[in-house]
Amino acid sequence: MAVSMVYVVDAELVVRNYLMEILQHEGFSARTYDSSERFLEDLPREHNFIRCLVLDLRLPGLSGLGLQRCLRERGVNLPSVFVSGHVQLPVVVEAMRSGAVDFLAKPFSRTEVLRAVKTALDQDTQEFCRQAERRAVLKRIETLSEREHEVCRLLLNGKNTKEISSLLKIGIQTVAKHRLAVFSKLHVQNGVELLLAYELASCMDDHTARHDGVPHPVTPGEFPRRQRGTTPATSQGTDARSLVRDQPLPVAAPASPHWR
After folding, report:
1. In which order are the strands placed within the sheet that holds 4-9?
2. What distance, in Å, lies between the first and last C-alpha atoms of the chain?
3. What's the DSSP call for residue 233?
4. All structural domains of the chain
């Protein structure tokens, strides 16, 4: 079971201590910071545990919204819960549109904080599991031989066994053997599962890009090249099928503190 961590960023010591007391009483691990800059210095880039962020809207230096934007630009997917004593509707809307899990007005209750934190941690748990599965799929893809990559690429383009045989100029039984090997290595049972595996492998960490990798009919030269044995680059919303090695193929189309 992955360890969970709640980060708290608030300029007021009394608020940080209050939130720390609530979180630790419920068994959560927590770290507190008085500014966005201190938090960014300490934040580990690796997503190897469940985590979320509770932050104030108004902070010295980089604001809460500024911190959220900075994390997004760095490709850090960190579910966030905003708290503030100065709630303005446009700001709340901007925070929620930017991916905030919740926005709590000070003074907030213990129940409100815990509910929001648990929701944020649940969201990160789901993402953590998706990323673990994605890494596993990428490792399986790397085990495919050059010929298996060629066959897999054509399968993802909707070609049947006879068409693949003609395009690659190999026997139908040979195509069937490579097709079986692809399915076995990638732990899939049919073409639909193969497509879903490649869609998962092409997912970005950024939430908005995780849904844009749906394969579409391709044309010759659409697949980006990569060196043998390298890990597919997926940070720019790579199409699922571009993870298959590109070879030239004739493919047709506590008490509340004093709040501010």
Report:
1. 29-33, 4-9, 50-56, 80-84, 102-105
2. 38
3. P
4. 4-134 (3.40.50.2300), 142-243 (1.10.10.10)
Q: Which amino acid is at 240?
A: A
Q: Give the Å distances, CA to CA, from 258 to 5, 20, 22, 102.
A: 26, 16, 16, 22
Q: What is the pLDDT of residues 241-255, one digit of tens each?
A: 455 554 444 433 344
CB atoms within 10 A of CB 40: 16
Phi, psi of 146 (to 5 degrees): -60, -45
* Residue 35 burial (10 A CB sphere; 0-12, 13-18, 19+): middle
Length of the chain: 260
Contact between 18 and 257 (Cβ < 8 Å) = yes
Instruction: Using the predicted structure, report yes or no on whether residue 100 has a pLDDT greater than 50.
Output: yes
The predicted-structure confidence for 218-244, as pLDDT tens digits, reads as follows 333 333 333 334 433 333 444 554 555
